[in-house]
Design a protein that fits this description.
This protein is α/β, with parallel strands linked by helices and 183 residues long. The protein is built from 8 helices and 5 strands; from the N terminus they run H-E-H-E-E-E-H-H-H-E-H-H-H.
Length: 183
Amino acid sequence: MSIINIISKIELMRIIHCTQKLLKEIGHPSLIDISTDTWGLGNWYCNIIRVDGKKCLLFTNEKTLYSFLVPNVKKANLKNIDNEFLINLRYNLQAEGFGLDVISTIMQEYSEIGFAKTASKKILGSMNKIAFEYEVLVQGKEGLDNVRLFEMNRDINRTIMKGIRFLHPIEALREVLHREAKL
């Protein structure tokens, strides 16, 4: 493969920025040390957190802070974290009411996924707030087993976030998708 093809492939690649805690759990995959363009929805951040004593993955979009929780994570889930991301992103977008054409376009954007260390303390701070909100919602339902996951993710994405100009993450997501559709 030529250097031009390698550079083109990296420029089209989307990144999941993983916390040190998550990198330790997944065995340090090959990390990319290149910042990619931010067209489309852009890159995501992922952390492994405990909610109700269970390991969960928290994915958060860097542009919109749109987030979703993947509960009860096992070793097998961690070995295929890119697949877990894509499957759960698709399900959450469907639960939000996005059409199959929009979801298909988004899935194409993530046909190539690489991993990198986290690069933004601002996003990590927002993720800490979101993780706390998940914990509060789960405690209110008396445990993770009593929660309707997609409803909880919807509630989280309708919380005003300072990091995105005091918008709700779902509004910011729709705004980015609308802007990209016009280009």
